[in-house]
Specification:
Elements (H helix, E strand, L loop, with lengths): L9 H22 L2 E4 L10 H7 L4 E5 L6 E3 L11 E5 L6 E3 L6 E3 L2 E4 L4 E3 L5 E3 L3 E4 L4 E3 L2 E3 L2 E2 L12 E5 L2 E2 L4 E7 L4 E2 L1 E5 L2 E2 L4 E7 L8 E7 L3 E2 L9 E2 L6 E8 L2 E8 L11 H15 L6 H12 L2 H12 L1 H25 L5 H4 L6 E11 L9 E15 L4 E16 L4 E17 L3 E19 L8 E23 L2 E16 L2 E2 L8 E3 L2 E20 L2 E14 L6 E6 L8 E4 L6 E14 L2 E11 L3 E11 L3
Parallel strand pairs: 1-2, 2-4, 3-5, 4-7, 5-8, 6-9, 7-10, 9-12, 10-13, 11-14, 12-15, 13-16, 14-18, 15-19, 16-20, 18-21, 19-22
Antiparallel strand pairs: 16-17, 21-25, 23-24, 24-25, 26-27, 26-41, 27-28, 28-29, 29-30, 30-31, 31-32, 32-35, 33-34, 34-37, 35-36, 36-39, 37-38, 39-40, 40-41
Helix pairs in contact: 3-5
């Protein structure tokens, strides 16, 4: 019995199989050989007959007879049954005279005839259904009859473009003709025949690579000095261009040539796209293309270019056209107000020290920075990214009765970038508010409200509609908010635990805007009015201790934020330059309905009787992250 057991696992088996294939391939390449024909005799050493009889699959038969002699056949040559390549080493081709004997016959494999030169009566070269005829640049002389595959090029692989030259007649009835079209180069396979061509019941199989095609493009794939006898078995077939959703190709059989012609397939923009905003913008392009009165000449030209373009270009174009930056700005502004509410709420609720604050003003100043990242939603609406910075200002006063009042302001600037397209906006924001609160021994109540106004400046790239095209706008907006909170405060020694429930309403309004710029795809945007109603339940815990530099207080907080209203913001846009403008609705990405809210602060009484504060606030869910950091100081006067 063997001391060990050998098991061929699936992974090991695959590796062994791959190794075996490599070894066989190397062995095949090593066994491939050049069979030299250096005699013009009908048979014997160095003759063509001997070379054909000896050649194995993959070998090359190389003519090396100086001066281009003639080989006169006395009988039929052996049938060639597998892959073989013919090569001529001299300037003049060797002529094979088969007068009185049968055609040179191929019944299998991939055949490259090189500069094969055959004379005689009737078909000189015949290829059976199992053969594939290739060739590039070399001139084949003789009448060729094939019912197999013709694939011009150095080999039969897709994407290998070349020209197969035949001097003589080509009877390709019942064959398969494979041609590659490279739109980005551009170039294509060609069968160039000095003579007549028969394609009756043959099948033309084109492969279109790349995406640089236009309506009206033609590609000649068969060119003859004589006549082309139709018709293809698939003469009426329409071929799709895989990279161009609005283009197709058809076969045109002309008296002496065959060409493929590219045309518009008539498919609507909306039928090849998906996603709410994409469909809305695509429907507008279809309206312009098909409507009466028609679109402007510039719009029609741009739309025609899109229909000639790739699927990626079309998708980018409708994303650029939709104008989602405007709905994203409103959605982002609501999130900014939410962050502002968090900021002042933590300043007035979590920082009340009655022993020190009663009868004194407590001004503060804080610099803040925030970032918001919104992913695309299930409607394929692009998300966006915002980065903001600014300053918070505020002051308040507490009385022994537990009543307190505060006033605050936030001045900031925001950069918004729409994901996936080169479109963005800058926003300058100014927000002001005030609050009234009651702080009892256990229960506290807060009511607050405020307003703000914004200056927006947008810049939208429309590069898919024309090189360097863009559109921009400037408009104003306002916001209002109201906030109520009730909670309990349990204190013990140097620690405090707060539990709370809050409700807030936010309203953001923007003026109508009309874009400027050279593009004929600039938008007019109706004014937007969007509301948000949110609740939050949460806990916060704080602990204070004396340090060598003064009292330090550390706080952590967490809560669950819920949106009761819509989670998407909707705008009605229209093309300013349209002959007959019509609204199409677009929306912002869905930022989610529920958020986990986390935060923390450290306050350190070290600045000339004031407090240094460092704070972090984050609102997170599965598609959105809004985070802000603050640093500043508070004093008591």
């Amino acid at each position: 019995m063997l001391s060990g057991t050998f098991r061929l696992t699936g992974t090991r088996f695959c590796r062994c199989a791959l190794l075996a294939c490599c070894i066989l391939s190397l062995a095949h390449d090593a066994n491939s050989a050049d069979i030299i024909v250096d005699s013009d005799a009908d048979s014997g050493a160095g003759s063509l007959r001997e070379a054909i009889g000896t050649a194995a699959a993959g070998d090359r038969i190389v003519f090396d007879i100086p001066g281009g002699a003639t080989i006169t056949l006395g009988s039929n040559l052996p049938t060639i049954t597998d892959t073989v390549t013919f090569v001529n080493n001299n300037v003049a081709a060797v002529t094979i005279d088969r007068t009185g004997v049968g055609a040179i016959s191929f019944t299998g494999g991939t055949i490259d005839l090189g500069e094969f030169n055959v004379i005689g009566a009737g078909p000189d070269i015949t290829l059976a259904p199992a053969t594939t005829l290739t060739g590039d640049a070399d001139q084949v002389t003789g009448d060729v009859t094939t019912s197999g595959v013709i694939a011009p090029g150095a080999d039969s692989n897709t994407g290998t473009v070349g020209t197969l030259f035949i001097t003589g007649d080509l009877d390709a009835a019942n064959s398969t003709i494979q041609v590659d079209i490279l739109g980005d180069v551009p170039s294509n396979d060609l069968i160039d025949v000095t003579g007549d061509v028969v394609v009756t019941d043959s099948t033309l199989v084109p492969t279109f690579a790349g995406s640089n095609y236009s309506v009206g493009d033609t590609f000649t794939v068969i060119d003859a000095t004589g006549t082309v006898t139709p018709a293809f078995a698939n003469a009426a077939e329409v071929f799709e261009l895989s990279s161009n959703p609005f283009l197709e190709a058809t076969i045109n059989t002309l008296p002496s040539s065959v060409e493929l012609e590219v045309r518009d397939n008539g498919v609507n923009f909306a039928s090849v796209l998906e996603g709410c905003n994409q469909l809305a913008a695509a429907a507008e392009l279809d309206r312009l293309r098909l409507g009466a009165p028609p679109a402007t000449a510039g719009q029609l030209a741009a739309i025609a270019d899109l229909r000639n373009g790739s699927a990626t270009g079309v998708s980018n174009a409708v994303n650029q056209l939709s104008g989602t930056i405007y709905t994203s700005l409103v959605d982002g502004q609501i999130q900014q107000v939410q962050d502002n509410i968090h900021g002042f709420r933590d300043r007035i609720i979590l920082h009340s020290d009655l022993a020190n604050e009663v009868g004194r003003w407590s001004p503060w100043v804080r610099a803040y920075g925030s970032s918001m990242s919104v992913d695309a939603d299930e409607c394929l609406t692009f998300g966006y990214r915002q980065e903001s910075a600014g300053v918070d200002l505020g002051t308040g006063r507490m009385w022994a009765s537990g009543i307190g009042v505060h006033g605050f302001a936030r001045l900031g600037s925001t950069d918004t970038q729409l994901r996936g397209v080169n479109q963005g906006a800058d926003t300058d924001s100014y927000r002001f508010g005030g609050s009234v609160q009651y702080l009892g021994e256990v229960i506290y109540l807060v009511g607050a409200g405020g307003f703000g106004f914004q200056d927006y400046s947008t810049d939208r790239s429309l590069s898919e509609f024309g090189l360097g095209e863009s559109a921009s706008s400037q408009f104003d907006g306002t916001d209002q908010f109201a906030y109520v909170e009730a909670g309990t405060a349990l204190t013990g020694g140097d620690s405090a635990l707060l539990s709370f429930l809050s409700l807030q309403g936010i309203r953001v309004e923007t003026d109508a805007a009309s874009e400027t710029g050279a593009s004929e795809f600039g938008l007019s945007i109706n004014g937007m009015n969007e509301d948000s109603i949110r609740s939050m339940v949460g806990l916060s815990f704080s602990k204070s201790n004396m340090t060598g530099l003064g009292m330090a207080t550390t706080q952590i907080r967490g809560g669950w934020l819920h949106e009761f209203g819509d989670t998407r913001r909707i705008a009605a846009n229209r093309l300013t330059a349209a002959v007959t403008p019509s609204d199409f609705a677009v929306q912002s990405a869905d930022t989610g309905r529920d958020w986990l809210s986390l935060g923390g602060q450290v306050d350190w009484a070290i600045l000339f009787g004031g407090q240094l504060t460092l704070a972090y606030q984050g609102n997170l869910n599965d598609r959105t992250a809004f985070q802000s950091g603050l640093v500043g100081a508070r004093w008591l006067w």
